[in-house]
Write a structure and sequence with these properties.
494 residues; alpha/beta; Aldehyde Dehydrogenase, Chain A, domain 1; Aldehyde Dehydrogenase, Chain A, domain 2; five-stranded mixed beta sheet; 40% helix; 18% strand; binds NADP nicotinamide-adenine-dinucleotide phosphate
Length: 494
């Protein structure tokens, strides 16, 4: 279905409503916010098969994947709602007064409070979990912020249906008008108008580096700069350490053929770069990986733009000096499908050529052959910030290569040992976000309830009487939340 782009006047009206809603919603209790989030989860379930069918039509993702992704999105809403109510994310701190001290120490109490209306841009490859009612939206609602979603044009109908689920939940929970808005726009002007509107106080983005960096720049060039939390692409390097590779080359090849082609390679955690040292074991790994890739059939990608970008970026990578094709899928490929492909290059070729450091979004990975472990270390030190990095290693490999382990730790947000980077668990200990350019602020995560903190800021209350303090900071701790009182974590009232 075609949707009209929002006009500047319509965008302004949406932002005025969001601003008004902010001043009401920010004062809603944690319980009320959690109730609203759980109501959205119910409405998403109520959207039934029609929602799945629409998403299948728009994204070409298989039914099982979309059902799983909706379940994950519902889990996110419910678990972030629980976290919202539990209140750990508020980071409540209380230091009671010491009047006898010279000079006297005042009573100071600190907690996080919401930033204001948040504009959310979702990615094409996660129509539910990283889109309209996805992680950013859930985190913003938990923090106490209204949300304005810019619908992704690649799944605008799906987005519209999810938005209706949010509107229904908002009505049932008596949320203020303007708590949520759903904005269409095929061109970048709509996104720019949203990011630069004075009532926008933060942005959540999941997508490409080009898109995220543009929104980040707009956010920073405003008269009042705002935080733009951009989760961008990544090549997720995998380091094959010698002892592990010698004993498990074939198993690692099988495991990685699956990870590289999972979801037609359309994951931000797709392993796009595999690094080993020259020798028989690496040759065996490359051979087995190539054989496995030849057996995996191509499948439709999200939309034609993504297919074209995949062909172009992969073609460009394969044209670079000293880059060789190892294997492609041997099954016939249709115009809308991504062809699983493996390439290889020397360590020197990789070090000398930034093109090989860029994400090729799709079922593609390059195996870099270093001449020795020193060159592997140099490669690790030349890789930019990543969402994930993986070591395939024995304990001895780790203890004998501490400089490499430190170098890799320095570039990633999630450090995996003997596994694959695809698959991002939704839990409190998850870190999804890494040093730039993986994300625009490596101090935060976009997966897990800690993501709520992106949309809140600390405020300290000094010398306020107990009655006037927010419930979160009152002596009697009426919400029963964990607080750090005079440097000790406790729930007990003062
Ligand atoms: P995208 O092309 O960047 O689109 C994402 C959203 O940003 C769309 O709504 C798009 O609007 C908007 N946008 C893009 N460029 C813009 C610009 N210059 N100005 C204003 N708005 C702009 O990304 P995608 O193709 O949907 O998703 C694939 C990418 O997302 C891959 O690189 C993947 O690695 C990354 N990704 C990252 C994560 C993560 O958590 N880090 C998760 C999933 C995907 P229009 O649609 O109007 O162009």
């Amino acid at each position: 279905m075609g949707y009209k782009d929002f006009t500047p006047e319509e965008i302004n009206a949406v932002m005025q409503d969001a601003w008004k809603a902010f001043h009401v919603y920010r004062r809603f209790s944690l319980k009320q916010r959690a109730g609203f989030m759980k109501a959205i989860a119910i409405e998403l379930e109520n959207a039934g098969d029609a929602l799945i069918q629409t998403a299948m039509r728009e994204t070409h993702l298989p039914e099982a994947r979309l059902r799983g992704e909706r379940a994950r999105t519902i889990f996110q809403l419910n678990s972030y709602a629980d976290a919202c109510e539990k209140g750990d994310w508020l980071e409540a701190r209380i230091d009671t007064a010491i009047p006898d001290k010279t000079p006297p120490k005042p009573d100071i109490r600190k907690m996080l409070v919401p930033l204001g209306p948040v504009v959310v841009f979702g990615a094409s490859n996660f129509p539910f979990a990283y889109s309209t009612a996805g992680g950013d939206t859930a985190c913003a609602f938990a923090a106490g912020c209204p949300v304005i979603v810019k619908a992704h044009p690649a799944h605008a109908d799906t987005s519209e249906m999810v938005a209706n689920a949010v509107f229904t939940a908002a009505e049932k929970c008596n949320m203020p008008k303007g708590i949520f808005a759903h904005v269409h726009g095929a061109g970048f002007e709509v996104g720019k108008a949203l990011v630069t509107h004075p009532h926008t106080k933060a942005v959540g983005f999941t997508g490409s580096y080009a898109g995220g960096k543009q929104l980040f720049d707009w956010g920073n060039q405003r008269k009042e700069p705002i935080p733009v939390f951009a989760e961008m692409g990544s090549i997720n390097p995998v380091f094959l350490l010698p002892e592990k590779l010698k004993t498990s080359a074939s198993d690692i090849a099988t495991m990685y053929a699956g990870s590289i082609t999972l979801g037609v390679g359309q994951f931000c955690t797709n392993p796009g770069l595999i690094i080993g040292t020259e020798g028989e074991a690496l040759q065996a790994f490359i051979h087995d990986l190539g054989k496995a890739i030849q057996q995996i059939a191509p499948a439709p990608m999200l939309h034609q733009g993504i297919v074209e970008a995949y062909k172009k970026n992969k073609g460009n990578a394969l044209l670079q000096d000293d880059v060789h094709l190892v294997a492609e899928s041997e099954s016939p490929v249709h115009a809308n499908e991504g062809l699983p492909t493996i390439a290889t290059a020397s360590g020197q070729a990789f070090l000398n050529n930034p093109v090989l450091h860029q994400e090729v979004f799709g079922p593609y990975s390059i195996v870099v052959r270093c001449k020795d472990m020193n060159e592997m270390l140099e490669v690790a030190r030349h890789i930019e910030g990543q969402l994930t990095a993986t070591l395939m290693a024995t304990d001895a490999d780790i203890t004998q290569n501490t400089a490499l382990v430190e170098a890799v730790k320095n570039i990633c947000g999630r450090f995996i040992l003997n596994g694959v980077p695809t698959g991002v668990e939704v839990c409190l200990s998850m870190q999804h976000g890494g040093p730039f350019p993986a994300s625009s602020d490596s101090r935060f995560t976009s997966v897990g309830a800690d993501g709520i903190k992106r949309f809140a800021r600390p405020i300290a209350f000094q010398n306020w009487s107990n009655d006037l303090l927010p419930d979160e900071l009152k002596n009697e701790n009426p919400l029963g939340i964990w607080r750090t009182v005079n440097n000790e974590l406790m729930k007990t009232p003062l």
